[in-house]
Amino acid sequence: MSALWSVGAGLLLLLLWVRHRGLEAVLVHHRWVFVCLFLMPLSILFDIYYQLRAWAVWRLHSAPRQHAQRVRHIQAQVREWKEEGSKRYMCTGRPGWLTVSLRVGKYKKIHKNIMINLMDVLEVDTERQVVRVEPLVSMGQLTAYLNPMGWTIPVVPELDDLTVGGLIMGTGIESSSHIYGLFQHTCVAYELVLADGSLVRCSRTENSDLFYAVPWSCGTLGFLVAAEIKMIPAKKYVKIHYEPVRGLQKICEKFTEESKKKENSFVEGLLYSLDEAVIMTGVLTDEAEQSKINRIGNYYKPWFFKHVETFLKADRTGVEYIPARHYYHRHTRSIFWELQDIIPFGNNPVFRYLFGWMVPPKISLLKLTQGEAIRKLYEQHHVVQDMLVPMKSLEKSIQTFHVDLNVYPLWLCPFILPSNPGMVHPKGNEAELYVDIGAYGEPKRKQFEARASMRQMEKFVRSVHGFQMLYADCYMTREEFWDMFDGSLYHKLREQMNCKDAFPEVYDKICKAARH
Asked: Is the preceding omega at residue 421 within 30 degrees of 0, hence cis?
């Protein structure tokens, strides 16, 4: 009884404090209160629900049976749109706050919403080494499904809640991408419902133009209803080597050198200042030295980027064996390093041991509850951007990031970009090594102004034939956008498949200069 009185008194004091400060002031300046008391427990309930649902679907083996029926329902909605006179563009009916992107798209309020409830693993074909999945299957769900079977996918983008559909229609990358390319390059086939309601399968040999045009199209060519992704045998551990490097030129040389080595299963860099970094290389293995196993994914463990920083501070190299699934999702608990701005004490050992099992809060719930004041604050004083630039421009790119943003850490992830048709490909006719530079946090540059600074960054990226990930805020004009991306195949197919009346152009859907 005394415990209940204590809890009640604590809640009363909290409510009085909120009333005194004002709800908006608390949500903006003390957001951790709301996140810790409400969003973290709610995120646990979300996870429990989706895990139970996935388990039930697996036990009943109902996903393949229900898939065809669900696709027919999508087709029926598209045909209904046509019968109504095709007066509005179509888009998926999934609420905008459920996406991992921090961008708030208002188009869903004015477009025809097509409900797409496709979130299951459909088939694991071990002979072809292919897994067939629905578009709302998440990375956390997929690795949890495949790893016990002894399989994984070649590119497992970081965060648990990233979905297959988002990674295909947008893009995805991981520290294995220097071997396998972007997430789209590990896919062997897509199934889409087109603007006329027909169901089409495309691959490198079947409807190949559509296959190459779908990635980066952001759902403006059709509705993705299934995808086939390559699988590779899973191993128990990643043997990871940490090496601190100082001096920007040495950092770039070391990172480029390691990225070219195919014997490295994984390559990643964390840049903690302009001239201090830790370069990590990893190899998949089934054997491990027991004394060097680090189960970094356990809730009480330090956040990964903080753990990596200890090697830099101690100026020492190190070797660890991380369980493979822990490695794949190593940045999930801290949402890279974004969570430190929301819960400043989140990496404190006391907090980790007591409440770390509830971390991280769902990004979707953070979006849903952020309010207009926080949204504007983030838009003007916070950066979440991934710029893909040729490896040969790495040093110049880091210097540009430092001058225009001054955000650290920076995430460095190499990838091979094949010379395929579509919106994104190298300038020449051969594959080229690129690097994703990820900037997440509050810029320390004086007089930072979001629009002006990002337009300067976008101009630089275009000048080196790089690309901007489309999940983030984009400030380019239409001409600048199509200067960055190759729209030749995309526009040809939109004309051929009568998409112009069915879906907005990708620029109109994602760029701030055009968005409604």
From this structure: no
